[in-house]
Every structure is written in structure tokens, then in C-alpha cells.
Design a protein that fits this description.
This protein is α/β, with parallel strands linked by helices. The protein is about 30% helix and about 25% strand. It has a single domain, classed as 3 Solenoid (UDP N-Acetylglucosamine Acyltransferase, domain 1), CATH 2.160.10.10. α2 packs antiparallel against α3.
């Protein structure tokens, strides 16, 4: 059987050594990206898009990320169409972070796929591991939310500001708290309410 590299072990969620030479080079590339991206001029949208597309695993259409941004590698991040991330977001991508279409992040959203052994003796040998994070479509993640490794968030989910998401969230819910708990399900009444408000807005704009 072919011997796995530390990178392959890392992406598979197995124990690995982070100071492996290949991983150190990939990490350095990620930090060079982070530094260059965070120093871009506020109006240099083209440069920021070029940097994201050159670094991330995949990038959809109409993606906006406000600097600064923090990553481990950057190459294990996959985002869909119409992704928006506000200032100061953190992506610790030792495992894959997959984000769907029409997803919005408030400022200081943090996704931590990196984890460490609970046993201190093993932890002190520099062995670590990770678990991936998957976020569906049409998700709004409020400011200062922390999402831990192994979490899957469904479609049409709202996560309240300051929440800690340590377990999966199903589609069509509002969740908040530490740890995050489902407050309620999004309903047909919610849809009607917001469609009516939007209609009033556009009607008013036409009259102006």
C-alpha cells in the first residue's frame, strides 16, 4: 500500500504532523496570500478577486471578501456564487471548507477545522487532526460566529451573531447561542412577510 503523505493524512481527517516540509511550504504560500490580500487597496476589487481565485480550491461568480482575511493554507477553501464575507474572517482550513451559493458572513466569522488530541502526552508530540466544514446555500452567518470542525449547516439557515456552532444544523432554521440551538423553523409566513416588505420598497422606489 502506498505510504500517505502528511498532507493526505491531514485532508483525510487523520493524525498528521503539521511541520512536515510539504505542509510548511503550503502554509507559507497561504500566509503570503493572506498578507498580500490584506494589504490591497480598498478599491482594488480586481486584485482581490485575482488573489482569491489563485489561492482557493474553487471560487464561484460574484465573490466578495473584505480584508483582512486569515487562512492556514487557503487552498482547501471552496466557495460558490454570490459569496460575501465581511471584515476579519478566519478560515483554518486544514480540512476542506465548502461553502454553497448565496452565503453571507458577518465580520469576524471563524471556521476552525483544526483540532488536537485530548490526551496531553499525544498533543505535545505535535500530532493533530482536522474535520471538514460544509455550509449549504442561502445561509446568513452573523458576526463573530464560530463554526467548529465536523459541522454541516443546511440550506436557508440563519445563525445569530456570537454563536458557537458545534453540531450540524438542518435546513430552514434560525439558530443562536453558545452552543448554538435551533430557535425556530423558518416558515411560509416569514417568506410572505419579507416579500411584502420588499414589494413595498420597490413600489416606493418607482414613485420617487
Amino acid at each position: 500500500m502506498k505510504k500517505k503523505s502528511e498532507r493526505e493524512r491531514m485532508l483525510a481527517g487523520e493524525l498528521y504532523i503539521a511541520n512536515d516540509e510539504e505542509l510548511k511550504k503550503l502554509y507559507e504560500t497561504g500566509q503570503n496570500f493572506r498578507y498580500a490580500f490584506s494589504l490591497t487597496h480598498p478599491n482594488d476589487y480586481v486584485k482581490r478577486e485575482q488573489l482569491i481565485r489563485s489561492m482557493f480550491g474553487s471560487v464561484g461568480k460574484n465573490v466578495t471578501i473584505q480584508p483582512p482575511i486569515y487562512v492556514d493554507y487557503g487552498s482547501n477553501i471552496y466557495v460558490g456564487d454570490n459569496f460575501y464575507a465581511n471584515y476579519d474572517c478566519i478560515f483554518l482550513d486544514v480540512c476542506e471548507i465548502k461553502i454553497g451559493d448565496n452565503v453571507m458572513f458577518g465580520p469576524r466569522v471563524a471556521i476552525y477545522t483544526a483540532e488536537h488530541p485530548l490526551d496531553p502526552t499525544i498533543r505535545n508530540t505535535n500530532l493533530e487532526f482536522g474535520r471538514p466544514v460544509t455550509i449549504g446555500n442561502n445561509v446568513w452567518v452573523g458576526g463573530s460566529v464560530t463554526i467548529l470542525g465536523g459541522v454541516t449547516i443546511g440550506d436557508n439557515v440563519v445563525v445569530g451573531a456570537g454563536s458557537l456552532v458545534n453540531k450540524d444544523l438542518p435546513s430552514n432554521v434560525i439558530a443562536a447561542g453558545n452552543p448554538a440551538r435551533i430557535i425556530r423553523t423558518l416558515s411560509k409566513e416569514d417568506k410572505i412577510y419579507w416579500e411584502d416588505l420588499a414589494k413595498q420598497y420597490w413600489n416606493q422606489k418607482i414613485k420617487e
